[in-house]
Amino acid sequence: MHRVTVLLLCALCSTLEGMRDGATTSVSFNCPSTSSVCFISGMVFTNPKETLTLTNVENKRSLSIKTGQITALRMEHCKAFQSFQKVTIGHTQLQELCINRDFVQVVAEGNRIKTIHTDPIEEQKPSRLEILKLNNNELTDAGVLCQFKALKELHLENNQLSKLDMACFSQMLQLEKLLLAGNRLNHLATTIDTLELPALTTLDLRNNTLTELDERHWAFESLATLQLAFNNLTHVTENMTRFVDLREVSLSNNNWHCEPLDALLTVLQTNFAKIVDGDSDCQGISNSTICCKEEVVPSEGELFGELAKFTELEQRYNNTNTSLLERLAEIEAEFETKLNETRLTILRSNEEEYSESEGSDDSNERQPESGQVTTGTPKDQAEAEEKDETATNPLGGRTCYRSRFGQGEKV
């Protein structure tokens, strides 16, 4: 017992020492030996810088992580999964997922996946992935998935895709199911002349914001189920005339215009396709089980009326803009006048302060006047007075006396 305790303490000390020195730590999980599937429950792996290892994986081809908390699985972590063909990751709050080229099936539904990591593309060893289920995650871009040419099922429902180029799937010639419901798609672009998906049987576009479906470039000869409900569709470009094997279509909760809807329903009826849903409360016209509204085409008079309104609004804008510019010029002129007056006031104030300062300096330099208190002996005072008289006597410093009231007075 003591020996086991000592060993555990040593292992803990070694781990702490490695963490202190900045060394990469390793996290290991064991697969039960009694099952052909590696089941791991409660897996906690929150530091992507750590090394991940799995033990007892011999002769096991499937990995199932049921619960836990996993932040990221990057390509260096996928090395621990290289013996598996099927990988299932339950609700673990996973944000980054790695997919190596030997996986055949990956299921990671209901996580928070934003990023997909893959092997570098090598033509000599293409991906074997056939089924990929990433529904209910947080993907905003599906471009990284274009390289999986062997896909048969692609589940991307309830993500955050806002744009998608259907040309991404052009090399998936075995693709049977493409599920894109519950995203934010308002337009499906197809940047190649012809998109051939000969094996595609199911296309689900429900719960998006599509306003138009342009299927002119689609060559889906095996398409049997097309889900279009809960969008903003008003029409489809070619009324699905090329989908001769189409058997089930959902069309409810859109903004169909009646005339193109009539044409679409006629084509579907001719091809024996079934409308599998319907609108329960039509605000406009009910066409079969699908609501529609007449497309309002404005008359020539209405167009001229709208043009006149626009012209009037434009004139008002121009008048308002002119008035604002004139008022702005007046404000600028007033501001300039006030600024000049303020500058002049400050200049005058500075000049007055300067004059007062000079007068104060002259006063401080004057000699003491009579009556001021002086210091020194009578002899010193007499000599000082004599010097002053000499300095101010116009007769060259000589002292003159004249009689005044019988007494001698200096002049």
TrEMBL record:
Compositional bias of kind Polar residues: 369-378
Family matches, as Pfam families: LRR_8
The protein's name: Leucine-rich repeat protein
Species: Anopheles darlingi (Mosquito)
Gene3D superfamilies assigned: Ribonuclease Inhibitor (3.80.10.10)
Coiled-coil zones: 314-341
PANTHER family: IG(IMMUNOGLOBULIN) AND LRR(LEUCINE RICH REPEAT) DOMAINS (PTHR24366), LEUCINE RICH REPEAT CONTAINING 53 (PTHR24366:SF96)
Disordered as annotated region, ranges: 346-411
Leader sequence segment: 1-18
Superkingdom of the source species: Eukaryota
Cross-referenced InterPro entries: Leu-rich_rpt, Leu-rich_rpt_typical-subtyp, LRR_dom_sf
UniProt keywords, alphabetically: Coiled coil, Signal
Acidic residues: bias regions: 352-362
Transmembrane spans: none
